Amino acid sequence: MSILVVGSVAFDSVETPFGQVDNVLGGSATYFSTSASFFTDVNLVAVVGADFPEEDVRFLAGRNIDLRGLARVPGKTFHWKGKYGYDLNEAQTLETHLNVFESFKPQIPVEYRETEFLFLANIDPELQMDVLKQVGRPRVIACDTMNFWISSKPEALKQVIALVDILIINEGEARQLTKEVNLVKAARQLLALGVKTLVIKRGEYGVLMFSGETVFAVPAYPLEDVFDPTGAGDTFAGGFMGYLANTGDMSEAGIRQAIIFGSVMASFNVEDFSLERMKRLTYPEIEERYRSFKALTQFEELPALKGRPTGE
Amino acid sequence: MSILVVGSVAFDSVETPFGQVDNVLGGSATYFSTSASFFTDVNLVAVVGADFPEEDVRFLAGRNIDLRGLARVPGKTFHWKGKYGYDLNEAQTLETHLNVFESFKPQIPVEYRETEFLFLANIDPELQMDVLKQVGRPRVIACDTMNFWISSKPEALKQVIALVDILIINEGEARQLTKEVNLVKAARQLLALGVKTLVIKRGEYGVLMFSGETVFAVPAYPLEDVFDPTGAGDTFAGGFMGYLANTGDMSEAGIRQAIIFGSVMASFNVEDFSLERMKRLTYPEIEERYRSFKALTQFEELPALKGRPTGE
């Protein structure tokens, strides 16, 4: 089944301790779509400016990402400039030029409105609500957000959260949203808002997933060379949703496998700048990394203890 | 097989956002021994002052912890005072009164010198080396340390590290010791120093274990009520070493199960102040928590992907 994603397509300028790049292809919807396109068909709704090069259009189209909903309007494409310190865990935003994104009003093409899978990438929650009003009844709706919306539009955001099935946010956002430091307490609050599955991304510390009945924890793959974490969260979401849309399996076991595929894709994304690693990525590599996650986390069932030295 | 542990027995005064306690039983060797005593016999070498109450001696003895090596000398027992902020991840030391611990010179009773399992808790590396000179050839030697020794006695510490099989430290210590931010690189350096198994404790983020061939990652158990993390690291080490000494199984699978038992014990320890939770802990609870770790981390093998939407 295909996925509809609404989000940003942008140019990123990124500086890390290991190098820097300027005006490379980025944006939440770009990372999400590229990642998800390894698993399923993707329909992208976003807006770019007149400066968006054919080369980048061809890249997205070449990944079988449908671009009927990618509007091109006069003006400049959204540009983000950020910087990472040595711990690579958090981006410091240096500049944000919304440009054409400032007046973005997502128009969902009629062909996409009965989509089964919908991902609302990190954009203004009022725009996310707009999108929800334009679609029918997707089987699975997931969304992301960021600290900026949590502080500036908390009510609009809560209305969106009440309507989604899956909330994919990071640790800081979970704490900011609920005013709870403890993640179990934060999760309980968010699940009470109507979310069925809460996915908390923790950067180098992995992922925690809470649903009504269970908790699932996956470590991040311990990588030697982490070059650029930009887009890792959206790449995770793309792998996660992409796999779910591929199989349609929304069981606990299926969702857990989707979390692993999301983690697999994110672990590749950070190995190079921008989308470079995904451009070279092959299925054997994806499968090998999945197996590596299994080897990383595998341990045996409760063994029998020899004797009971002290205690009952 | 029994374990010999050399470390501190102390009184702790701890303040957390949820309450505080004064002069409660603590110390690295105390937490380690109590935890390990659920799995095997423990021989404890430490020093306390004249103020150490019979009640606490009875508690340790009641756990089948052999106290022949617990010296009692004139003076006051080691006292530590610390404070945790809301994130509960790191203790801020407010006061350290070494007291009798200042002139501690571990004397290993002759009956312990052929011990198969040795744990050198966090004490002066020169004292750790003293202990190594007094024992024969233990089958498994593990040690812990802290930032204070890494900066004040790095050469002495490296000599100890070269002689141990297992190094159990936290993330910050791994980075400080190797001057590497990246843990894979830090691990490679430490394994090159002679360590066979490196266990990196990451507080609420779990445990990473590196050996020559493999990496194992375990998340921390997501707890709702974390009251007091004091002693969690030593409690982890006690469960880990205790299980290894119980089975003698030093295979990769056995060491992984030991990591889980260490994590199980630490997850209980933080639920209450001091040793209170371990005082009430039962084997059914330990087993249930082990099973919970399995449920927390379990996922299925690589599935077959339906079709290959884009790519080879």
From TrEMBL, chains A, B:
<dbReference type="InterPro" id="IPR011611">
    <property type="entry name" value="PfkB_dom"/>
</dbReference>
<keyword id="KW-0418">Kinase</keyword>
<feature type="domain" description="Carbohydrate kinase PfkB">
    <location>
        <begin position="19"/>
        <end position="273"/>
    </location>
</feature>
<keyword id="KW-0808">Transferase</keyword>
<dbReference type="InterPro" id="IPR029056">
    <property type="entry name" value="Ribokinase-like"/>
</dbReference>
<dbReference type="Pfam" id="PF00294">
    <property type="entry name" value="PfkB"/>
</dbReference>
<protein>
    <submittedName>
        <fullName>Adenosine kinase</fullName>
    </submittedName>
</protein>
<dbReference type="GO" id="GO:0016301">
    <property type="term" value="F:kinase activity"/>
</dbReference>
<dbReference type="InterPro" id="IPR002173">
    <property type="entry name" value="Carboh/pur_kinase_PfkB_CS"/>
</dbReference>
